[in-house]
Amino acid sequence: MIRTTNEDDVRVVTLDRPGRRNALRPADLDALEAAVVDAAEPVVYLHGAGSSFCAGADLDAVAALDDPEAFARRGQRVARALEGSESVVVAGIDGAARGGGVELALACDLRIATPDATLGEPGVRFGLFGAWGGTVRLPRIVGEGEALDFSLSGRVVDADEALRMGLVSRVVEDPRVVATDLADGAPDALAVVKQRVRADEDAETQERAEARAFASLHGEHVDDIAASRTE
User: Fold this and answer.
1) Most buried pick, 79, 111, 159, 166, via CB within 10 A?
2) How many CA within 13 A on the CB side of residue 198?
């Protein structure tokens, strides 16, 4: 079950199956995608109910799949929605993140962990692996060596180790505060910064686009810029 609430400029998306550590069934993936795609707020905060972030795919649902490739593509589509959202997407990781839960967090712009967070890709231990885009994003974020060690070993890392690896962005007591603070930024500037950092183009093309985006924002906010000089 996916629950959505709006708190000022933050859309809070809650993975709400605490009895199953927020494991996701096919319908949950569709609902999560809709919650992200429909967001009009500048910041989306994704977290899990109870004592876990997300255990990944519901293994009962996985065992009953008629078309496992379609299920993998479904999860990949949700991860792309998180990554491509115009909103800045913050994963608040408290407790366990496993398998697909890690992969969804990798697609978010920021991964903010609590000291109680643990992350792992245990799929190899029962003959599978994460297929929601993790093999693409994980090495990009932590480097190939760390990605191979993390994925092949199936080991679980705590928040401090995840921070050292670059798997999470920060470790704080309340990740929601980070999302709330981000929402103080100008929405158009937040969207542009995300878009430019996420862009995958050659350096010259990216720099030209960056300059154009700067000029556009300058025109929109020139009065705000002038006013800030007097504060």
Assistant:
1) 111
2) 21
164-190: burial string, b at 16+ Cβ within 10 Å, e else: ebebbbebeeebbebbbebbeeebeeb
Which among 100, 103, 106 has a CA at the least distance from the CA of 56? 100
67, amino acid identity: D
Residue 127: strand pairing partners: none
**Is it the case that residue 229 has pLDDT exceeding 80?**
no
On whether the CB atoms of residues 130 and 56 are closer than 8 A, the answer is yes
In whole angstroms, what is the distance from residue 23 CA to residue 60 CA?
10
CATH top-level class of 2-182: alpha beta
Q: What is the 3-state secondary structure (H, E, C) of 75-134?
A: HHHHHHHHHHCCCEEEEEECCEEECHHHHHHHHCCEEEECCCCEEECHHHHHCCCCCCCH
How do residues 143-195 score in pLDDT, each as one tens digit?
999 999 999 999 999 999 999 999 999 999 999 999 999 999 999 999 999 98
What was the pLDDT predicted at 125? Answer: 82
Neighbours of 199 (CB within 10 A): 11
Question: Is the pLDDT reported for residue 83 higher than 60?
Answer: yes
Strands 110-113 and 88-93, bridge-based pairing: parallel
CA 81 to chain centre: 10
